Amino acid sequence: MKQIWYIGIDMGSTAAKIVAVGDHELRFVMPTGWSCLDTAGQILKKLKNQGILPENSRIVSTGYGRQAVSYADKAVTEITCHAAGCAQQYPDCTIIDVGGQDTKAIHVCSAVVDDFIMNDKCSAGTGKFIEIMANRLGCTIDTLFSLAAKGRPVNISSLCTVFAESEIIGHISKGKARENIAAGIVRSVAIKVTQLAQQVPVTGPVLLTGGLSHLPYFAAALGKELQCVVRSAPQGRYAGAYGAAVLAKKVSQ
Amino acid sequence: MTDRHEMWKELGMDLEAHDTLCAVLPTAFGDIFLSQENRPEGMAFYDMVVSDIHGIRPAELIEEQKRGRKIFGTFCLYVPDEIIVAADGIVTGLCGGSQFWVPDGEKVLPKNVCPLIKASVGARLGRTCPFFRIADMYVGETTCDGKKKAWEILGEDVPLHIMDMPQMKRVKDIEKWIGEIKEFKQVVETFTGHEVTAENLHAAIVLLNKRRKAMARVYACRKADPIPISGKDVLLMTQIAFFDDPQRCADQANALAEELERRIDAGIGVFPKGTKRILLTGTPMAIPNWKMHHIIETSGAAVVCEECCTGTRYVEHLVDERPMMMEGQLQALADRYMKNNCACFTPNKGRIDDIIRLAEAYHADGVIDVNLKFCTLYDTEKRDVKRALKAAGIPVLSLETDYDDTDAEQLRTRVEAFIEMLG
């Protein structure tokens, strides 16, 4: 019998994350770029190079570009996928997913979504906010966090990304330390994410997923605002793709 | 189709801007409505009305005006149609439901006013809606802060009467509401030159009850599985009822209901049996706001009921027809209208009871509480709604949106995730 692969493709606004589960596990990430359709094609090519063919796979796509993956057997929202991924280890948990354009808080009970909340159109409190501010500080996102770890947060009060950027320019012009500005940026995001997350019950292990989930400083900053321990989800940024792969297996059963 | 430009010109409309609106509506309507499969034949009437939405009914209203009848533009379910109809006046709903009118409203209103108010003010001041031009008198009401101030702006441009709404539902508040209805009756009598008598008021009560009963019959058909009609189509029928002739509205709704009842007997539906059933609750959806219905019904679920002003509040609860004297009739009217549970009242537990009752009656799998941006009242109430529904074991999703389509995909993700959550 041929090996069946269960594949999850998380087509996010910034990055595409792929998890394939077969006789071994394969995962990779690539920038989404400007065309989800092209990216979906590149993913297929990459899978084929690894000997993974759609005809002996079950594929679930997720993320904002989930409909662009024409060869997927099913499209499922990232909310359900993140929950399915994390619930493998933690059937009762709260997931905080800080994505490139959306931030979500998902409350999971007995391995199913019980409640969720997503940010509005506004990018404050999302990965996009961090990205814009890192650009402003002239560094990468990871550097911004290592700078922040050494700083004392300056106050950033604006709820709007554009206004917050102006505030940061103000701090820069006053000669405030980069470390302190970086810490202020991280705290500002943590506060906004907390305001959102508190609209669902935050109980059980609180797991961080998405593109910032590999940063312990961010988890700690969030935990400080939420007043609980926030840990990186086992699958980190691959949580959605992994959950999609889990669902691919479920669908085929 | 008849060219209406002459009529619109006589109404003092901005023809160029209005043509832009007329150009987009058919595409939107085609994509959202005509693309549906297996629609009831009875929807043909409503499709026809929409195809000439700024033509057919406005032309009728102008004819009636020539005969000396007065047209009253209203914005709220609390304004009793019966009084206007009894005085031989005609009611036309004036709520704006399109983003098209919002920028004209924003010229005079602050940004953080709800899109319904912005669109309504914009439709009048931008001179891009014939109904807003035709109405001889506007009837406002003090349901929220945004509206209260909007009347002051609109009142500079058109005769306007305001009904002072109670904020609570104590006995003394209902008495006060009777007083408001009495005063409204005098205003309408003076304006139309027709006295409201016990006889003509009785006839009006009977007529508008007839409309409620006919529409409620259509709503009741949605309790079936499979569902014989889409939520979109029922919403359209309801939206059109606000400006149609009440007798014709009742006749068309009864004809549609008969067809739906036959469909139920034959087991015919527009969605597969077992499709997830959604009850919508929240702020009104004025024509042509079909946004949430379209997202939900193209995400694998069906809207089976709307607990809102463009829903059950318009069709439920009859006015008691037994009183034959004016005092009793006014009391009956006040009693009926105070049964509507709008978030402008405090407390407003009745709305939560309604949502739970309707969710059960319509076998809803989940409730979506959707509010227009900047509606503080409904936005604040969503907490109570969520808590009560959770306690009742009914899944609920709270959403906030406006008339703009730019958040459609983000809304779709939430709606799809909610439907996935329903299993």
TrEMBL record, chain B:
<dbReference type="GO" id="GO:0016836">
    <property type="term" value="F:hydro-lyase activity"/>
</dbReference>
<dbReference type="InterPro" id="IPR047678">
    <property type="entry name" value="YjiM-like"/>
</dbReference>
<dbReference type="Pfam" id="PF06050">
    <property type="entry name" value="HGD-D"/>
</dbReference>
<dbReference type="InterPro" id="IPR010327">
    <property type="entry name" value="FldB/FldC_alpha/beta"/>
</dbReference>
<comment type="similarity">
    <text>Belongs to the FldB/FldC dehydratase alpha/beta subunit family.</text>
</comment>
<protein>
    <submittedName>
        <fullName>3-hydroxyacyl-ACP dehydratase</fullName>
    </submittedName>
</protein>
